[in-house]
Design a protein that fits this description.
Blueprint: E1 4-8, H1 12-24, E2 28-32, H2 35-42, E3 49-53, H3 61-69, E4 76-80, H4 85-93, E5 98-101, H5 106-121, E6 134-137, E7 140-143, E8 148-151, E9 154-156, H6 160-171, H7 179-186, H8 197-212, E10 219-222, E11 226-229
Parallel strand pairs: 1-2, 1-3, 3-4, 4-5
Antiparallel strand pairs: 6-7, 7-8, 8-9, 10-11
Length: 231
């Protein structure tokens, strides 16, 4: 299936470079030079992934990301010249699924795009329903086939990364996963020291679950070890 990717960057040279590489991979590409234009495009269905620059005049990328997350779980790859740990954490906390620092290797960007699309849409493809596609923990229901989560029938909006983490833990009740386990199984990349991606996404996931589950906590921290879900 041909995926449609939106590039949001006020630098036309960078946007054009990304477009060339994406087009060569067979993707359909749309571009927006500012945040407001990006949000207008996102009002329509059909965008499968967003490549979003942070530093733009007017409405910056962080604000755009937060507004997208109010209604959509479309994967977002954030790009920025800011390379500090807190900059990355801030980007991920606003709802981005991944974060790359400028200048970047276009081939690495393509690899990140493919990885995000694979994680987001592979499990959502139509398939014969199997027992392990549906996980119930008390009143929480996790559907691998439709990539959806609900509590007492109410949908809980999760990003693809958040869904992947929740499904991983829920598929192995009682088992403790450390950050390295989670990163390598969800991101499909080698874990490296001081990688805070798991911590940030776990924080967002737990915050959403507690809010939607009326204060109930199902993800537990085993201090100094990792995270687990009890059935």
């Amino acid at each position: 299936m041909n995926r449609h990717i939106l590039i949001v960057d006020d630098d036309p040279k960078i946007a054009q470079l990304i477009e060339i590489y994406l087009s060569n991979e067979g993707y359909t590409v749309s571009k927006a030079g500012d945040g407001l234009s990006a949000l207008e495009i996102m009002k329509e269905d059909g965008i499968d992934l967003v490549i979003l620059d942070i530093m733009m005049p007017g409405l910056d990328g962080l604000s755009v990301c937060m507004q997208i997350r109010e209604t959509k779980t479309t994967p977002i790859l954030m790009i920025s010249a800011k390379d500090g740990d807190m900059d990355k954490i801030t980007g991920l906390m606003t709802g981005a699924d991944d974060y790359m620092v400028k200048p970047f290797n276009p081939l690495e960007l393509i690899a990140r795009v493919k990885s995000l699309l694979r994680r987001t849409y592979f499990n959502a493809q139509p398939q014969q329903m199997q027992p392990d596609n549906l996980i119930r923990i008390q009143s929480l229901e996790i559907n691998k086939q439709t990539h959806t989560v609900s509590f007492e029938g109410r949908p809980i909006k999760l990003t693809p990364i958040e869904f992947g983490i929740l499904h991983l833990l829920a598929s192995h009740p009682g088992r403790v996963f450390n950050s390295e386990d989670i990163f390598e199984m969800i991101w499909k990349e080698k874990y490296y020291d001081s990688n805070n991606s798991v911590t940030v996404h776990m924080s967002r996931l737990r915050e959403k679950l507690v809010k939607e589950m009326d204060g109930e906590k199902i993800i537990h921290t085993v201090w100094g070890v990792g995270y687990k879900i009890e059935a």
